[in-house]
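Board work, copied verbatim: ATP-dependent DNA helicase Hel308
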Amino acid sequence: MRVDDLPLAPEYVNHFESAGIEELYPPQAAAVDAGVCEGGNVVAAIPTASGKTFIAELGLLTADGPGLYICPLRALAREKYEEFDALPGVSVGISTGDYDSPAAELADHDVVVATSEKVDSAIRNGAAWVADLACVVVDEVHLLGAEGRGPTLEVTLATLRRRAPDAQIVALSATVDNPEHIAAWLDAELVESDWRPVDLRTGVYADASVAFDDDTTVAVEGIDADDPANAGDTEATAALVRDAVAAGGQALAFVRSRREAERLADRLREDGLAEAAGIGMDAAAVAEEVRDAGGTEMGERLAENAAWGVAFHHAGLRSDHRAVVERAFRERRLSVICATPTLAAGVNVPARRVVVRDQQRYTGTGTEWLPVLEVHQMCGRAGRPHLDPYGEAVLVGDADDRDELWTRYVEGEPEAVESQLRDRGALRTHTLALVATGIAGSQAGVLDALGGTFYASRTPNPDLGGVVGDVIAELIDMEMLAPDGSGIAATELGAQVSRQYVKPETGRKLVAGLRTAAAMDPDDVTALTALELVCNTPDMHDTYLGERERAAMYQYVRGHGAELTTGMNETDDFEGWLESVKTARILAEWVEGATTEELVAGYRIGPGDLESRVERAEWLLGAAEAMAAVIGVELPVLGSTREKLAPAAAEQR
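↓ predict structure ↓
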């Protein structure tokens, strides 16, 4: 099937043909046969790089009205925005933040790209534009099974189907065990395929060779299996990367932690990869781009590695540094990225060879194997269409675990997608939202709305009645819902909690903290007060507190106790509270003018961690201001601290 056979306007046909897309891949042709160009609901469960974005574009460009593209990550949203913005004559909008806004301006665009959280928050704030949607594309729909964000995606999609019942749904999924269940839920045709534009072979490394699933075995040069100094997983990874680069390819190396990603990058820069790949000048230019994006010790370390064709990538990096690395790798100006597993679920960075050095992660109490789906996502990055003759994925093991790795990941099937909606915290959040937005006005109404979820479709006679009843009682106790005749309604506080897009538990903590702060001596109410108030909530990211920091933080709390809304003896989770005070202290120093480098060095956090906490604190301070107005508390320090925080975030000191 050819592009010029499709029901596309001539300008779109010309656009795709000029990009080298003339003949459809088999999964794309199957999606056309399934009705994606005719308004039909389609679930495409196909491998990475098999043309999912083009399937999405077919739905969006042939829809009789505006379209919405939902994706899980901001970086991915930005990438898709840029891709869609290149379509001739198509107005594209993007929205990934401002959780207290209906984003009414998005109604003016042909296509909107947004995260599921932003779509959910826009609905809570009365976004009328969602009712006019003609096509909704959901990328990475298998994340329905993810803890945390899975229930949000599930309820958001169910609500969109209720608000825009005639909208076409195009759901894009990785290869999972039960795509037919997702298709049944969405009343969609299933397109399932293992076809890839570049052949992929997967294997396990042990004893200086790789056994692949095509029954071949390849010796790895530069490794002496009898020499303990050269037989470890890091040296094996280095040899596998060198081999890929020497053959004219690029490599991705996945490890378990940020520290390991940086250490591996430091090790690989010894191997002269930029020179071997013939990209010395390009790599030097990348190093300067990293430095131009902002100077931190971590940024300088990244730049020094980039000059040798090597980069590391993890959430501790600032977002602009991550963007430089991703772009440079796609442009083939870097030879290898050493990354944590989050890169596999994010932006498009394919490579000739993927090396999965670590297949287990630390959970806080021990180690556990990575899910098969997660490892397959990493492996699926191997093979660049139109650039590589093949792709290779290698799991690094040894003689003791090679059989386990082979059985678990090479022969193993990815896990089934299971709804996480039964989680009590998720139900509490979404029950409040359903009532606050007017979708439901009773327990029966909540259950009716939840009846459109993936959970309900997979659970015969779902036993949610008792749990929802308990959740409603809890929300009434929190003063966020109230009896209303024979039904229920959101209180002013509950409606504000929902609009501000914070969890009910966060709303309850903010209200308690606001009332405490209002009763404090005004001279003791400082920026630290405001920041501790918002940091001691479930919606703020945790900040690790090391053993060596504990005594110093304890002394800090004793010295600043009068400024805090919670006393040391008033918390049921002292360790968690102490971590929140650490976060508040970092942000207070940031507001007072401390630099990124000073805070990174002083508190053992990454620049990206600081960036995300500044952003979250600004959001939560705004939410606290809104709730203070509802409960009649005047606390000017909230606004003044937020004003100081926002410019500081923009300046990227």
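Residues 424-496 form a domain with the Arc Repressor Mutant, subunit A fold (CATH 1.10.10.10).
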